[in-house]
From TrEMBL:
Top-level taxon: Bacteria
Keyword presence, Oxidoreductase: yes
A single GO cellular-component term on record: cytoplasm
Listed GO MF terms: oxidoreductase activity
Keywords: Oxidoreductase
Domain FAD dependent oxidoreductase as annotated: residue spans: 32-387
Lineage, top ranks: Bacteria, Pseudomonadati, Pseudomonadota, Alphaproteobacteria, Rhodobacterales
Signal peptide stretch: none
Protein name: FAD-dependent oxidoreductase
Length: 440
């Protein structure tokens, strides 16, 4: 079994619209830009370039959406994973922070527009996202979050206890933060639809075309595969956590954090009317996160991070997820059955924001989506296409940096941080008298 196996075990593989027909690269071709990686960032870059009349060729080692773009849970929340907006400004500085904040907070606008323009069949709904408060003392932080995001143009608000119960169907929350512009979709369906859009606009896609090298040829570059090559003026690597070769040491620029996603059987209409009655995405508000939403057929799709037995012992993992869901929604009862359970990988960066690396004149790589893939990958296509079309680096919305190796401690710190957040949540709950979820 390889690290990237069992793509066909995901729910999305069973339910997404079929892929557009593609073939491996078997010839020598010319392009203005060669893009390596068939996930959201690569596909949206290719789409933007093809629309601009640029000859774009995209190479994918496996099939479209094979990596994180086909394995994620389908949440589309245009926020930042870990840092507050104030912290992000301190980390990135001016003008980079404001540029990235503007791109990210409007990313769902871009995703929705592409879905409409190209009639992508991907279960897209924009019914909002709720971060719940399982303790009364969390409300102040959610109020501050609402104020900061609203100040940059997002539509968010804080819900009181009655409102959050009405939106989520859960009696457990003391309040919550509602991001009205958030949505969810079938992530593999979205990736496959983007691929069709690229080809519709004249872009070229070759799957089953693993890149074996990238070398200077005259004024441009030659990207090689087992059976063909692409000569291009510029090259963009967007392989993320699923990077295998292609450019020396690129896979050392991040560290892997695994995540698992599970999906229930389709729930009956009466249960759906009581649990997530507005078809909203829910984050239970704990640092050791539990995030869940429905698919189009009424399955609850939920995700968590592995920790101890959770993620290793699959029977125990299913039990943990069922117990958490029933604790949040007692009206579910005993009917939950997890029909699907699969794993994905995140390319984690120390700062949990994307990194744009200048590998050589005319070659860049993007890594570090760090778990906010759908909106982030979508908006990054605009930045990468700006670079490919010749925008000066100083004017880009993401700073170009030298390639560097992620520190070794990043191999263990994300997992340790999850444990620390769980312990912190548990201690805070006990101090406030709030109940703890099972297996906390």
């Amino acid at each position: 079994m390889t690290r990237f196996s069992h793509f066909d075990a995901t729910l999305w593989y069973a339910t997404a619209a079929p892929p557009a027909p593609t073939e491996p690269l078997r010839d020598a071709v010319e392009a203005d830009v060669c893009i390596v990686g068939g996930g959201y960032a690569g596909l949206t870059t290719a789409l933007e370039l093809a629309k601009a009349g640029t000859r774009a060729v995209l190479l994918e080692r496996e099939e479209i959406g094979f990596g994180g773009s086909g394995r994620n849970a389908g949440h589309c929340t245009p926020t930042f994973t870990h840092y507050s907006l104030g912290e992000l400004r301190s980390i990135l500085g001016a003008p980079w922070a404001e540029r990235l904040i503007r791109r990210q907070t409007r990313a769902n606008d871009r995703a929705g527009q592409m879905i409409r323009d190209y009639q992508i069949s991907c279960e897209w709904v924009q019914n909002g996202y709720v971060m719940g408060a399982l303790r009364p003392n969390q409300i102040a932080a959610l109020t501050e979050k609402a104020q900061s995001y609203n100040a940059v143009g997002a539509r968010t608000r804080v819900l009181d206890r009655d409102e959050v119960a009405e939106v989520t169907g859960s009696p457990r929350f003391y309040g919550g933060w509602l991001h009205e512009e958030a949505g969810h979709l079938n992530p593999l369906g979205y990736a496959r639809g983007l691929a069709r859009a690229v080809m519709q606009e004249g872009g070229v896609i070759h799957t089953r075309s693993a890149v074996t090298g990238c070398a200077r040829r005259g004024a441009g570059w030659e990207v090689t595969t087992a059976e063909g090559r692409v000569r291009a003026e510029r090259v963009i690597f967007t392989t993320g956590a699923y990077t295998v070769g292609g450019w020396p040491r690129l896979e050392e620029s991040f560290r892997i954090q695994r995540v698992f996603v599970a999906a229930t059987q389709p729930l009956d209409p009466e249960t759906r009317a009581a649990v997530l009655p507005r078809n909203t995405t829910i984050h239970d508000g704990r640092g050791d996160i539990f995030v869940y939403k429905y698919d189009a057929e009424g399955r609850i799709v939920a995700s968590m991070f592995p920790m101890g037995r959770r993620g290793g012992d699959l029977a125990y993992t299913r039990q943990v997820m069922a117990d958490r869901l029933r604790w949040l929604h007692p009206q579910i009862g005993e009917q939950i059955r997890w029909d699907y359970l699969w794993f994905g990988e995140l390319d984690m960066q120390q700062r949990t924001v994307p990194r744009l690396y200048g590998l050589a004149p005319g070659v860049v790589a993007l890594t570090g989506l760090s778990g906010r893939g759908v909106p982030t990958g979508t908006m990054l296509g605009g930045i990468l296409s700006d670079w490919a079309l010749g925008m000066p680096e100083a004017d880009l919305d993401l700073r170009v940096e030298p390639l560097h190796r992620a520190p070794l401690w990043m191999s263990v710190v994300p997992a340790l941080k999850l444990r620390q957040m769980r312990l912190s949540d548990n201690l805070a709950a006990r101090r406030s008298g709030a109940p703890l979820p099972p297996h906390a």
